[in-house]
Design brief:
By secondary structure, this protein is α+β, with helices and mostly antiparallel strands. The chain is 42% helix and 13% strand. The chain is built from 14 helices and nine strands. The strands form three sheets. Strands 1, 5, 6, 7 and 8 form a five-stranded mixed β-sheet that branches. It has a two-stranded antiparallel ribbon with strand order 2-9. α2 crosses α3, α2 packs antiparallel against α8 and α8 packs across α11. Its EC number is 3.2.2.31.
Length: 346
């Protein structure tokens, strides 16, 4: 088909030199695909290189402590990806003897691997004709073919997958898949795409009908909830602080944080002092309370916005066992906590 030939020709002249394009090792392809979910290449590349360096084989990753994996992942967000990555590595080693599944259907059995990732690995490593559909592909297809079906609807998922499967080069599925993802990432960008030098502009419905900014269509998600976090940063005279491990399921599961008091609104010094006096760790404790940031630090997640204040608790002793502030950077923490640690400069 002309579409696929035009696309792969463009790719041969414009593709970026990326390390995972120099291999068909499914472990490395899998690593890159998991890291690049919800992450741009320029941000994900250093993480990919760090994982390959620290865990050169799936056996190394499987044998690692989860806390070390989370620490290496720190800053990428969506920490369930890292937990799933580790769990799948253990499964590949324990159940499959270290050999990755060699087809789309079996790849889907890996934790954290969905249609897109399974298609990418199956096509790139095993030449299976399985079309990828990610954000870049949605954008390219919706604009070129003028498709109005919302991409985040079940019907949209079916329509775009079917179209991509129809268009894919049956002889070179790996090349086609990488080409269409690269085209969406660097040419048919979300904003300010390079339409004037696009090889598809003559047949692109969005370009010819001035609908570039309208496509792809996406159903608006529910408004993010506001939460108000107050972290207690204990500092004792002997240079220790308190970190707690989040055991409950959630985006920060198994990461460390300072003791947290969640409130219904942003707190002033006076109102928080009254609230804090009832907190178990502060009862019967002599301390000085210092507000680190007067304005809330707003940390935006996909489903909630965290309005955060850090309260420094200077005390002669800690109410429970603590950790040395010199070792605080050894713990895997959410980026919100990590940024505070760097700015506070313990």
């Amino acid at each position: 088909m002309i579409f696929s030939k035009t696309l792969t020709h463009w790719y041969s002249n414009n593709k970026r030199n990326l390390p995972w394009r120099e291999t068909k090792n499914p472990y490395y392809i899998w690593l890159s695909e998991i890291i690049l979910q919800q992450t741009q290449v320029k941000q994900g590349l250093p993480y990919y290189e760090a994982f390959v360096s620290n865990y050169p084989t799936v056996f190394d990753l499987a044998n690692a402590d989860e806390s070390d994996v989370l620490k290496l992942w720190q800053g990428l967000g969506y920490y369930s990806r890292a937990r799933n990555l580790h769990a799948s590595a253990k499964y590949v080693v324990s159940a499959l003897g270290g050999k990755f599944p060699d087809n789309y259907k079996d790849l889907l059995k890996l934790k954290g691997v969905g249609d897109y990732t399974a298609s990418a690995i199956a096509s790139i490593c095993f030449n299976e004709v399985a079309a990828v559909v990610d954000g870049n592909v949605y954008r390219v297809l919706s604009r070129y073919f003028g498709m109005d079906t919302p991409i985040n609807s079940s019907q949209g998922a079916k329509e775009f997958k079917s179209l991509a499967q129809e268009l894919i080069d049956k002889k070179e599925p790996a090349e086609f898949n990488q080409a269409i993802m690269e085209f969406g990432a660097t040419q048919c960008k979300p904003k300010n795409p390079y339409c004037n030098i696009c090889p598809f502009k003559d047949g692109c419905i969005a370009f010819n009908k001035n609908r570039i900014s309208e496509l792809p269509v996406k159903i608006k998600s529910a408004k993010a909830k506001k939460k108000y976090f107050n972290f207690l940063v204990f500092i004792s005279e002997d240079g220790k602080t308190i970190l707690e491990k989040r055991e409950r399921k959630g985006i920060w599961q198994n990461l460390y944080q300072f003791p947290l008091i969640e409130t219904s609104k942003s707190m002033t010094y006076k109102s928080f002092k009254e609230e804090a006096d009832n907190y178990s760790l502060l009862k019967d404790l002599n301390f000085e309370l210092v507000l680190y940031n007067k304005e809330d630090i707003v940390h935006k997640l996909s489903h909630q916005h965290l309005y955060t204040k850090f309260w420094v608790i200077n005390t002669n002793r800690l109410p429970i066992e603590g950790v040395s502030v010199e070792k605080i950077r050894d713990f895997a923490v959410p980026i919100l906590i990590g940024n505070f640690i760097e700015s506070f400069n313990f």
